[in-house]
């Protein structure tokens, strides 16, 4: 009888390679390996594909989803200026839902009842995989080999791999856990587990050191947006994808885009995270600057709260949820007139907005100026303040009457 099938989210690393064998041996499954290209640092994905076959996958696929990742996922993150805990641009949280989408698609194509991933029991990514899969197909069963197997130490895992003819890393492995894609790079573990310790300089690959090899001269860049999406760089029409790639490079060269933070994981643990997100931070900063110009005050203020909730939902694995979908609707409405240009200056680890311009700008020179051109009605301010401050005045009088003066 044919064996049941399982689609495995495959990276080519030790964990997911061992998982292929483990799923065959312990669950008697046929494994279909799927590697998804979301713009991670160039590794030869053809080599990754063949490796899965050599280890025993019955089928091995590589899917380049970069364009879709930008169009359907990162565009929403930018519109939401998404920063978890006001700092982290969600790079890992963003890539999991698109990987999930393709895992489920493959499972349907191949008639597989199972999907497996290589996450441990301690992180956020397991939640993102499993809740995402449940949302897209509640009948699929998820297997998390790394959470189940007894290969607790790296040595035990290497031994298991050697026994089964699975290629083990020959070079000395990095002590860090790295995850990366177009939206940036996350670095965890190793020496970083001591929150007091400054991150070693050699962990960075996308950003120069602002004190060292960053460019010596300042550089100006102009980014143009249309309805909230970046469409041109320096006046030249370019795809959003290429703008991300170019800004990763340019901002990175100037040493901009490093984050060192303590983060609250969904599973309840605080962890020390280091990120390199030069392009993401640049684009969010520029996009916010344009919104400051184009969004009416109440809408802008309300959106700030929505942005925070959006980031939390996505961080917590709720990409495919009714609330996140509804918030997307709100955010999309806000972007209709976010069109214009933003000028930035990069220099030695900094990125500063130095200019903004829009055909939909709500900035009114005549209202803002202190020069002769001033059209603002200064007399109207008097009546406004009288009524604005009226409740405070009533409260203060009452307080005085009851002898409660000085107590707030
Ligand atoms: N802490 C970040 C998050 O949960 C980054 C996770 C990186 N993942 C990894 N497998 N190293 O989104």
Task: Name the poorly predicted regions.
Answer: none
Radius of gyration: 26 Å
Report helical residue fraction. 40-55%
Widest beta sheet: strand line-up: 3-2-1-4-5
In the CATH hierarchy, the third-tier topology of the largest domain is known as: Argininosuccinate synthetase, chain A, domain 2
Proportion of residues in β-strands: 15-25%
**Could you state the oligomeric state of the chains shown?**
single chain
> From the coordinates shown, what is the CATH architecture of the largest domain?
Alpha-Beta Complex
Tell me the count of domains.
3
Rounded mean pLDDT is 96
Q: Bound compounds, please?
A: arginine
| Number of helical stretches of at least 4 residues | 14
Which of globular, elongated, flat, extended, rod-shaped describes the shape? elongated
Helix- and strand-based class?
A: alpha/beta
Would you list the SSEs in sequence order as H and E? EHEHEHHEHEHHEEEEEHEEHHHEEHHH
The profile of the biggest β sheet is:
5 strands, parallel
Q: What's the number of extended β-strand segments?
A: 14
What is the straight-line distance between the termini?
A: 78 Å
């Amino acid at each position: 009888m044919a064996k049941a099938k399982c689609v495995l989210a495959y990276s080519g690393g030790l964990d997911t390679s061992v998982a292929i064998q483990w799923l065959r041996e312990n669950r008697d499954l046929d494994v279909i390996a799927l590697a998804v290209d979301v713009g991670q640092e160039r590794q030869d994905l053809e080599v990754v594909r063949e490796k899965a076959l050599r280890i025993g996958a019955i089928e091995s696929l590589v899917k380049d989803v970069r364009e879709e990742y930008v169009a359907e996922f990162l565009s929403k993150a930018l519109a939401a200026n998404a920063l978890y805990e006001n700092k982290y641009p969600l790079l890992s949280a963003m890539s999991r839902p698109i990987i999930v989408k393709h895992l489920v698609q493959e499972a349907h194509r191949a008639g597989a009842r199972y999907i497996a991933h290589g996450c441990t029991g301690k992180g956020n990514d397991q939640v993102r995989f499993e809740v995402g899969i449940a949302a897209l197909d509640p009948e699929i069963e998820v297997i998390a080999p790394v959470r189940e197997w007894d290969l607790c130490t790296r040595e035990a895992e290497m031994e298991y791999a050697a026994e089964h003819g699975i290629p083990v890393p020959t070079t000395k492995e990095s002590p860090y856990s790295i995850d990366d894609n177009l939206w940036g790079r996350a670095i965890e573990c190793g020496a970083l587990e001591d929150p007091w310790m400054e991150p070693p300089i050699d962990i960075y690959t996308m950003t120069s050191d602002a004190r060292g090899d960053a460019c010596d001269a300042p550089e100006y860049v102009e980014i143009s947006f249309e309805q909230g999406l970046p469409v041109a760089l320096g006046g030249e029409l370019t795809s959003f994808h290429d703008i991300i790639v170019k800004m990763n490079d340019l901002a990175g060269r100037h040493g901009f885009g490093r984050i060192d933070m303590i983060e609250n994981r969904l599973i309840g643990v605080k962890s020390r995270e280091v990120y390199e997100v030069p392009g993401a931070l640049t684009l969010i900063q520029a996009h916010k600057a344009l919104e400051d110009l184009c969004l009416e005050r109440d809408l802008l203020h309300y959106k700030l709260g929505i942005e925070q909730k959006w980031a939390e939902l996505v961080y917590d694995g709720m990409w495919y949820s009714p609330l996140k979908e509804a918030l997307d609707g709100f955010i999309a409405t806000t972007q209709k007139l976010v069109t214009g240009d933003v000028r930035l200056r990069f220099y030695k680890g900094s990125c500063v907005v130095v200019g903004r311009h829009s055909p939909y700008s709500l900035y009114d020179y005549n209202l803002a100026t202190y020069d002769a051109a001033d059209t603002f009605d200064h007399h109207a301010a008097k009546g406004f303040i009288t009524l604005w401050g009226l409740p405070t005045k009533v409260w203060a009088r009452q307080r005085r009457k009851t002898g409660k003066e000085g107590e707030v």
